[in-house]
Amino acid sequence: MATRKRVAVVGTGTVGSQAAWRLAARGAEVVAYDRFAPGHDRSAAGGETRVFRSVQTDDGRYVPLVRHADALWEQLQTETGRELRRLTGCLFMGPADDPEMRTVLDVVSEHGLDHEVIDAEAVAKRFPQFRVDDGDLAVLDPRAGFIRPELTVQTAARRAEELGARIRRYNPVREVGPVAGGGVEIRTDTGTERFDAAVVTPGPWVGDLLPDLPWRVDVHRAISAWFLPTEDHQAGEQRPAFIRTGGTHFYGIPSPDGLSVKLGLSQAHHKPVDDPNRLDRTVAPEELETFTAMVRRHLPGLNPDPVRVSAYMEGYTGSTRPLVGPLPDCDDVILLAGFSGQGFKLSPALGDIAADLALEGRTSQPIDFITTLDRTTA
Ligand SMILES: Cc1cc2nc3c(=O)[nH]c(=O)nc-3n(C[C@H](O)[C@H](O)[C@H](O)COP(=O)(O)OP(=O)(O)OC[C@H]3O[C@@H](n4cnc5c(N)ncnc54)[C@H](O)[C@@H]3O)c2cc1C
């Protein structure tokens, strides 16, 4: 009989909680660490919602990974009976000749994804919450909607615990390193533990924990702002999430209770974070100017004064492709970091891939374009 592998998960956030679930489900002995507790909002997760979408706006190579994630989202919901994701659709909008809109159209046709192309006139009629310009186009992704990030992290972590994983809360890992002869050692303020392998998912703290990484991950501060409609919607009306390209790139997600709409801007609008331990969570009035301008220009049904604002942080690689795979000096340490604004929708698939790599040393998922193996630049 094969011996049971002992695997550490460093960081029980978005990807780490999913990795703990997948590892525990596959019979590993799992110990997961977090500097806070699962579901906290001091890093990349938090803020009530994230977009799930089947259609990728930048790179069709993510499509098979999104499909794998999609199946695991369903599985986690079924296993736990929690509504982690609601499929309300996602509307991509922008000038018909915008390169991102062209990529969306290329990706849906190349991968045979369910979609609907809607011209500007029809958008104005069907979705009066948006002000569109002549020459705009919209693509509706019906297998899309929103994810509830805090609930997802807590649910995946709880499911992992039900399956036998132990979670060491408020227990920052200070060092992860290989042990002579194989295996990994994890050092915390309370002691040192040995494992057969470690899955390392520290999000924005990756440079803090692994200062000698050969790849650069820059941490950026992203603001979310919530806006109220000027009139009540019809009860039970499900409005889609949306992404607007061309000019200022921004996205919006109706809140799960239907009472507000959360907006976010693209990476170009994020400030750098020098130290993830000192994220500035205060949002200055001038940081809201672009949000207000977008509401005035494109979202006529919203009051342009935000009712809530929050700051989060995320790790970005130079290519925006995440780093997934072993560290150069240690096959037993599997790194997953630098999700560059893409990680939530993919997180169950990333957790499953982490389990493949930690338990079997390989995965059948198509990760050639994001693997750390032979990768010289981030
Ligand atoms: C505002 C915003 C909006 C976004 N919108 C979307 C979206 O709509 N759709 C989408 O798919 N993605 C979206 N993303 C991206 C997505 O949220 C991230 O890619 C994802 O959350 C990153 O997951 P992670 O596991 O790497 O990091 P995290 O979720 O931050 O987890 C890292 C965990 O590691 C812990 N940790 C760190 N260091 C240590 C240590 N030394 N010891 C122990 N624990 C440690 C932290 O406490 C944390 O819990 C968005 C990101 C932001 C910031």
Automatic annotation (TrEMBL):
SUPFAM superfamilies on file: FAD-linked reductases, C-terminal domain, FAD/NAD(P)-binding domain
Pfam families: DAO (PF01266)
Domain of life: Bacteria
Gene3D superfamilies: D-Amino Acid Oxidase, subunit A, domain 2 (3.30.9.10), FAD/NAD(P)-binding domain (3.50.50.60)
Record EC number: 1.5.3.2
Enzyme class: oxidoreductase
GO MF entry, a single one: N-methyl-L-amino-acid oxidase activity
InterPro entries linked to this entry: FAD-dep_OxRdtase (IPR006076), FAD/NAD-bd_sf (IPR036188), MTOX (IPR045170)
Keywords: FAD, Flavoprotein, Oxidoreductase
Coiled coil: none
Residue span(s) of domain FAD dependent oxidoreductase: 6-357
Cofactor: FAD
NCBIfam families for the chain: PRK11259.1 (NF008425)
UniProt cross-references to PANTHER family, sorted A to Z: FAD DEPENDENT OXIDOREDUCTASE DOMAIN-CONTAINING PROTEIN, PEROXISOMAL SARCOSINE OXIDASE
Protein name in the entry: N-methyl-L-tryptophan oxidase
Organismal lineage: Bacteria, Bacillati, Actinomycetota, Actinomycetes, Kitasatosporales
